[in-house]
């Protein structure tokens, strides 16, 4: 059992407070970029992801990696999450998981 | 707390996908309540008493038969499991939020899958931590059951799965003995699982505020129920089981911590802030628990009003 390296559930807003830490988030892919891709977070802000995306790429992907700036993530793992995903639920989960119920996650 | 509960309910929006998961969650939670009621009807007295269970020559069968009626499937994160305490009376079961936890549900990613002769082992990473899992083959003497091998063959490293299993402690480490594993097809289930963990945690900890422990003790048929017991006989009230376990939960956690060899050895006792940090419970609840324990003569304040020690031996 190892809880030493958790990945914090974040959206673009919360990403700002976790620079340098391991994070995970789900984004909607906007377009591929040099060295990765550009996506829209569940709170409608832009996030840059650096890494090798899976191919073929679905509309939503989960990115797990280290936040290197307030708006970008250096991805370790990217997983296709399909073409349908409830972003509103995920967004509220991020707020709960970093708010009153932090102790269940980090 | 009410505000948070409403907030959590709002999360379960009426989209068709979430409605399906909400239904599944309700069925599972419904089973939790149902098993509490069944226990209440069938076992008022009887083999439910922990003192009887521990007095039998071979405690394990009676512990299992008692547990089968109170086993519920609890959705958890690995972080919650890492903080689970061993319940004192049988040293087999774990306690989370004051509720006996035996069968758990987890959602996460598979890593380090290794197929061995008698079992398949892997690590499940749900983002809050990693836990070792084991899937024993049904029959390893003759030929592997085809159902088992097909189920596990489909599992690949890096795949998201839903796992049902039993929590086991082995040499101080917690492990999961897996009896059900399914790949995720709809990734809203990840969101739903974490929301469910929040809801169940919120429900279990809320009950500790609802009723004082003394009113439930009055309903116990046997007078042998001490603060050591967790599988207390259910009271006539519907939420009796949960409440009794819940409130005893925080008192018990505080008492357990104060009865740890490290705590007992300290002349000065344990500061209440340390209890807050170690147990992850807010100060006001810790103070309520401490006051209750002091009233019952189990704990006393040592060097000052903020330091406490346990009166009895562990």
What attributes does this structure have?
heterodimer; A: 106 residues; mainly beta; OB fold (Dihydrolipoamide Acetyltransferase, E2P); five-stranded mixed beta barrel; 2 helices; 6 strands; 41% strand; globular; B: 314 residues; alpha+beta; Arc Repressor Mutant, subunit A; 12 helices; 12 strands; 44% helix; disordered N terminus
Briefly say what this structure is.
Chain A is 14% helix and 41% strand.
Notes on the protein architecture:
The complex is a heterodimer of chains A (106) and B (314). Chain A has helices at residues 12-15, 87-97; strands spanning 8-9, 22-33, 36-40, 46-50, 60-69, 72-80. The longest helix of chain A is centred in the last third of the chain and has 11 residues, at 87-97. The mean pLDDT of chain A is 93. Chain A contains two helices and six strands. Chain A has one domain (8-98): Beta Barrel (OB fold (Dihydrolipoamide Acetyltransferase, E2P)), CATH 2.40.50.140. Chain A has a five-stranded mixed β-barrel with strand order 2-3-4-6-5. In chain A, 14% of the residues lie in helices and 41% in strands. By secondary structure, chain A is mainly β. Chain B has 314 residues and is of the alpha+beta class. Among the domains of chain B are: 73-185, OB fold (Dihydrolipoamide Acetyltransferase, E2P) (Beta Barrel); 246-310, Winged helix-like DNA-binding domain superfamily/Winged helix DNA-binding domain (Arc Repressor Mutant, subunit A). Chain B has a five-stranded mixed β-barrel with strand order 5-6-7-9-8. Chain B has a three-stranded antiparallel β-sheet with strand order 2-3-4. Chain B has a three-stranded antiparallel β-sheet with strand order 10-12-11. In chain B, helix 1 runs antiparallel to helix 7. Residues 1-18, 28-66 and 211-247 of chain B have low confidence and may be disordered.
């Amino acid at each position: 059992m190892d809880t030493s390296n958790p990945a914090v559930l974040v959206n673009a807003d919360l990403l700002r407070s976790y620079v340098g830490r391991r994070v995970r988030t789900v984004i909607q892919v906007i377009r591929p970029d040099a060295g990765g891709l550009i996506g829209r977070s569940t709170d409608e802000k832009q996030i840059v992801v650096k890494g090798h995306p899976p191919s073929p790429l679905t509309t939503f992907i989960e990115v797990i990696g280290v936040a290197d700036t307030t708006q970008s993530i250096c991805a370790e793992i990217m997983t296709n999450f399909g073409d349908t995903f409830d972003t509103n639920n995920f967004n509220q989960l991020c707020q709960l998981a970093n708010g009153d119920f932090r102790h269940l996650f980090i | 707390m009410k505000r948070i509960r409403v907030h959590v309910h709002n999360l379960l929006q009426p989209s068709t996908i979430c409605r399906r998961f909400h239904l599944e969650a309700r069925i599972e939670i419904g089973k939790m309540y149902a098993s509490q009621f069944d226990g209440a009807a069938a076992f008022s007295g009887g083999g439910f008493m922990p003192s009887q269970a521990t007095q039998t020559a071979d405690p394990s069968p009676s512990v299992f038969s008692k547990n089968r009626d109170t086993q519920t499937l609890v959705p958890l994160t690995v972080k919650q499991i890492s903080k689970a305490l061993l319940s004192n009376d049988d040293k087999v079961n774990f306690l989370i939020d004051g509720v006996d936890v035996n069968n758990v549900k987890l959602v996460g990613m598979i890593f380090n899958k290794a197929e061995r002769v008698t079992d398949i082992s892997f690590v499940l990473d749900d983002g809050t931590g990693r836990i070792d899992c084991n899937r024993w083959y049904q029959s390893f003497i003759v030929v592997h059951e085809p159902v088992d091998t097909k189920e596990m063959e489909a599992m690949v490293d890096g795949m998201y799965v839903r796992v049902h299993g039993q929590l086991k402690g082995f040499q101080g480490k917690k492990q999961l003995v897996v009896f059900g594993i399914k790949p995720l097809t709809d990734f809203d289930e990840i969101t739903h699982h974490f929301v469910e963990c929040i809801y169940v945690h919120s429900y279990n900890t809320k009950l500790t505020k609802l009723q004082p422990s003394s009113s439930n003790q009055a309903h116990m048929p046997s007078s042998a129920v001490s603060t050591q017991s967790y599988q207390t006989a259910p009271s006539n009230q519907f939420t009796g089981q949960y409440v009794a376990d819940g409130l005893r939960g925080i008192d018990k956690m505080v008492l357990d911590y104060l009865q740890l060899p490290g705590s007992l050895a300290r002349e000065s006792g344990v500061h209440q802030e340390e209890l807050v940090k170690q147990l992850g419970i807010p100060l006001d609840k810790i103070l309520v628990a401490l006051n209750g324990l002091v009233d019952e003569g189990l704990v006393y304040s040592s060097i000052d009003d903020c330091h406490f020690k346990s009166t009895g031996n562990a």
